[in-house]
Amino acid sequence: MSRKIAILVRERQSEAFRISAGLIMMDDSVDIFVLDRKVAGDPDTRRNYELCKEMGLGLYTNAEGNGDLQYLSTEALADRLLEYDIIDPY
């Protein structure tokens, strides 16, 4: 049975992107929400972020001007989280 998983990202961005890409191997639907900050520019984070983009994961943020992540207001983001079976913070 496929589950909807939301990954909330703040501090450990590289790890969160890496884990998120791995979760789709179980046929789960995974969306990533980068909260209150921009995606880090270090090589590990960028590589894992690009992998998530290539794998078609949903990428959202509440920080305006955060690259090609889809912007959602904090209120809209909170409303969207009600749709998920699992919410995992990083």
Structure, explained:
34% of the residues lie in helices and 24% in strands. It is an alpha/beta fold and 90 residues long. It has one domain (4-89): Hypothetical Protein Ychn, Chain: A (3-Layer(aba) Sandwich), CATH 3.40.1260.10. A five-stranded parallel beta sheet has the order 4-3-2-1-5, with helices on one face. It is globular, with a radius of gyration of 12 Å.
Structural topology:
Blueprint (H helix, E strand, L loop, with lengths): L3 E6 L3 H11 L5 E6 L8 H12 L3 E4 L8 E2 L2 H8 L4 E4 L1
Parallel strand pairs: 1-2, 1-5, 2-3, 3-4
What are its keywords?
90 residues; alpha/beta; Hypothetical Protein Ychn, Chain: A; five-stranded parallel sheet; 3 helices; 34% helix; 24% strand; globular
Brief characterization of the structure:
34% of the residues lie in helices and 24% in strands. It has 3 helices and 5 strands.
For this structure, the CATH topology is Hypothetical Protein Ychn, Chain: A
Arrangement of strands in the largest sheet: 4-3-2-1-5
Compute the separation of the termini in Å. 24 Å
**Major sheet, described briefly?**
5 strands, parallel
CATH hierarchy class name: Alpha Beta
Helix content: 25-40%
